[in-house]
Every structure is written in structure tokens, then in C-alpha cells.
Amino acid sequence: MMNPENYLILAAILFVIGALGVMLRRNALIAFLCVELMLNACNLAFVAGSHITGTLDGQTTAFFVMVVAAAEVVVGLAIIVSIYKTRRSTSVDDANLLKL
Amino acid sequence: MSSILLPALEMAAPTLEWRALAPVLLVFAAACLGILLDAVLPRAYRFLAQMTLVFASVALSFGFLVMNWRAMRQGRLAMGSIMLDGPTYFMWASLLVFGTLAFMIFSERQLNGGASAFAASAASVPGSLEEADASAARREHTEVFPLGLFALGGMMVFLASADLIVMFVALEVFSLPLYLLSGMARRRRLLSQEAALKYFLLGAFSSGFFLFGVAMLYVFSGSFDLHAIHEAVAGNAFSSSNGLLYVGLGFLAIGLLFKVGVVPFHSWTPDVYMGAPTPVTAFMAICTKLAAVGALLRVFYVALDGERWNWQPLFAVLAVITMVVGIIGALTQTDVKRLLAYSSIAHAGFLMTAVVGATQVVPAGQGTSASAIMFYLAAYGFATIGAFGLVTLVRNAAGEDNTIASWAGLARKSPWVAGLMSLFMLSFAGIPLTAGFIGKWAVFTAAWRGGYGWLVVVAVLASLVAVYLYLRLIVVMFAGEPAKGTYVGNASGWTWIPVVIGAVATLWLGIIPDQVMQLATFAGGFLR
């Protein structure tokens, strides 16, 4: 039987991969996907936590997080698409007008 | 492997305390209705209908709030997920007031030749034919009002939630509309879209941290409930799962401090404040800060106060860095909106001093940290709304002109605009007889009582330096040679009413603060 705490470690690793991706990747879409990876890492932690603590709240929460992530996709893609239409690029380095 | 056995799946219908929750429910209901109105009404009537709906719902919501407050309705609502206590009442009332004032600036159309400050068609490419057509046809995005209401409702739930999952959902409910609103400026749309992109990516990033913190605290305590987490922390001393607790505490703090705009999580503030349409900046500058500080206080005072010896020194260091970075950043700015953004970072630092103080149990008649912070935010909010309202007035042929150089000699063009702006600057600087002074006094006292005397000394020194940066703008306005090509726009009451209310309240809270201070003192304790 696998120790459920390993899932927490896996969730932490996925979260770190996502966070590094947001910070290192220059493409807004990839950065956004990495944010989604972070949220899903949290979901894994919630479900593992539900198993560890013997409560059901964590599993319910995973559904809430999925809905929130879906709403975030709607808003995020709208913003990224509109900026792509303007600049023909989704690189976050090209978005540099606001610097001082 | 053991599986969790469920008793027969029974879904009990949740009970809602309709009357006590009415302030929030009304705001959300009006937001949903607003979306519907936008879909069915002919264009010509939408603006008027939305404005009516917004102001009616906010007024009604405020009415219910006052009624409930007088009846002293307190305690947990909605199956334990929302906590109605003193701070909730005070901050809900402030949010509704500042939200209303900001929505008034949203409604301004005379200034822009009959068009609002929002893009005619946000989906069209800047500079394209579609955009020109949409402007020529006088199209408008009246969706800004429902979006604003959703944001306002989300903020109200955010600072009142007694449960981390409700808090997370509310965080997204108020953030997502703000990301969209900041990308909808009519002028300088490239800047605006860029601000939206940056705000969105960084905001989503920080809510990822918030959520991971929630997950860790859940694994640690087995519950999302703030009170249950408090008990788990209290019963936990010297146990082995401290790692989970500290990771959770840290990540949760990152998510919340990002929204407050505390260094090192402040980098979005200047860009977003500058790029977003000014009415939206006004709304964000006070309402987001208020909601985020409210939630920060609730999480750290209610759930994690058992760990205060660990987070107080950390927050004290962040407060110092925040004040220093905010003030030094503001000194070098050439844009008024960026200047105000850095000033808001510095103010986040001043607020953090009281958060660090964490005085919760006080003799009768004295204020807790929470009441000091609530008063500070009220004082800061009136000046902020007024200042951003005035920022919309200074214009050139292309629209708003925000460079400090173009504000030169403004006093000769319009003594009123320059005079009122000076009043707000003096309040930001914390000069006596303005609300800012009393606010600073209150938060520094709270920090002092909490045993952080050295932090108060640093904060007082920082606010002395900060006086210089506000005086700089006043000197430019009064002593400079009038800038060519800049004029003061002919605004309607929708801009002037919030500005005048802001000015009157700034003086009122500075000269006779007793009533509001008493209200804040009376409301200063969190319930568990």
C-alpha cells in the first residue's frame, strides 16, 4: 500500500514545476497553462489530504477548484487572445510598454 | 486500503439567513440582473438602466446593512461559511460607500464628449476599422456595471468568509471581473491590454499560492474552517506536522499580501494602476486593498493567531521594506497614476505596522489593531477616490494627461482642482487636520501597544520622507509654469460628487473623527 503522503510530495513537485514555468516561460499561453498546473497540483493535494485526514471536504473542494479554473480560463484566454490580435505575439517580453 | 464509508447520501438543503445576508445577495442579484438587462434591452436604454440598477441595489444593500447592524445580528451565516461580526459590518459599509463613489466615476460621460471611459468595443483591435466603426456608432460596454458589482460582491464575501474555500472562491469572484475591467480603457488601449495581461498572469499565479496554502492547512488540520484551524494550531504545539502548518501559513500569506500590494509582491501595482481606466483604478485602489486587508486580518487573527510569534517578525520586516520601496519608488515617478500607485504601496506598509501589532484584547474604549486599520482604510479611501477622480479631469487633446509635467501650473487653470488635489495629498502625507493624520496615529498606536516600538519609529521616519513626495506634486501644481496643451475637463456631477464627498470626508475625519472612530472601535473584535 502506498503511503498517501507520497501524493502530497508529488503535488508539491507539480506545484513547483508550474511555478517555475510561470516564472521562466515567456509565452503567455504556456505561463497560463503552468498556472493551471499549479491549481491541479493543489487539487491532488486536496484529494490526498481528504484521504489522510479522513474527511470528505477535500474531495468536494477539488470540484470547486475545477469550476474556478474553468472560469479563469474564460477570462484569461479572452485577455490573451485580445492581446494576440493586437500584437501578433503572446510573448510576455513584448508586453513592455508599462516600464519606468 | 481503508475507504471512507458514507452513510446513506442525504443532501440536506442548506439554510440561509436571508435578512442577514441581504447586503451581499442584493449586490450579486443586481449583477446577474444587469447581465440579463444587457442582453435584452436596446442599446439606447442600457446605460441608464444599468446605472439605476447599480445605485438602487447598493443603496438597498446599505439599508439592510444598517438595519442588521442596529439589530446587532451577529454570528455565523450560511451553514457556517460567512462570519457576520463587527469588522464585517464596518468593512461592508466602507466597501459599499467606496464602491458607490467609484461607480459614480464609472458613469461619467460628459468629460469624454458623451462617451464613457471604457472602450467602445473591447474586442476590436486598437486602431482597426472595427474600432472606428464602434466609436462612430457610439457603442458602449455597459457590462462594466455588472462586472463592478460582481467584484464588489466578491470582495464583501472575501473579507467575511469563515471558511478558506469560500474565501478562495470569493477571491476569484472579485479578481476575474477586475482583470477584465482593467483591459477596457477607451484611450491608450495597448497599455490597458498589457495591464490586464500582467494583472491576470500575476493574479492567477498568486491565487495558485493561496490555494496551495489552503491545501496544506487542510492536510494539517483536516478542516477549512478558520476556527477549526485555530484549534488545531492551539493543540499542535511541538507536533511533527509543523512543516505543513508553516508551508500553509507562508503560501496563504503570499496570496493575501499580493492582493494588499506588499513588497515583494507589489510589482503589478504600478503597471495595473497606470494601464487600467482611471475609474477602475480608483475602484481597485481602495476596494481591493480593503477587502484584502480584511481577509488578511481574519486569517491571521482568527485562524493563525496561535502562531503569531512566528509571523509577526516576518510581517514587521515586510512592513519596513514595503514603506521604503513604496516611498523611494514614488520619488522617481513622472506619471501621476504611477505616483499614486507607489504611494498606495507605501500605505500598505503603514497598514502592515498595525497588522504586526496584532492587539486584539484591549481595555474597554480602546481600539484593537483591526479598528485602527479599518479607520485608516476609511480615511485613505476617501482621499484615494477623490484623487483619482481629479486625475480623470486633467486632459489634453488625446484624453487624460497623467504626466506630472502636464500638471504644472494647474492652480492657475483651475484653483479648485489643484486645491482639492493638495488636500488629498496632505491627507496621504498625514498632515494634522486631515483624515490621514488620525489614521496614521491610530495604526501607529496599535503597533506600539503590540510591542513593536522600533517599527513605529521607522514608520514615523518613513512618513516624514513621504511628505516630500506629496509636497512635490503640490509645488508643481502651484509654482510651476502652466503646461501648454493641458486643460481641465468639463466634468458632470458624476465626477464632482465623489470628489467633493471625498474632500468633505477627509476634512471631517481629520477634524472630528470621534464618531467614525467610535464606530470602528466598537466594531473592532473578530468573532471566532
UniProtKB/TrEMBL annotation, chain B:
InterPro entries: NADH-Q_OxRdtase_suN/2 (IPR010096), ND/Mrp_TM (IPR001750). Residues 161-464 form the NADH:quinone oxidoreductase/Mrp antiporter transmembrane domain. Keywords: Cell membrane, Membrane, NAD, Oxidoreductase, Quinone, Translocase, Transmembrane, Transmembrane helix, Transport. It comes from the Bacteria. The keyword Transmembrane helix applies. The keyword Transport applies. GO terms for cellular component: endomembrane system; plasma membrane. Belongs to the complex I subunit 2 family. NDH-1 shuttles electrons from NADH, via FMN and iron-sulfur (Fe-S) centers, to quinones in the respiratory chain. The immediate electron acceptor for the enzyme in this species is believed to be a menaquinone. Couples the redox reaction to proton translocation (for every two electrons transferred, four hydrogen ions are translocated across the cytoplasmic membrane), and thus conserves the redox energy in a proton gradient. This is NADH-quinone oxidoreductase subunit N. It comes from Propioniciclava sinopodophylli. The gene is nuoN.
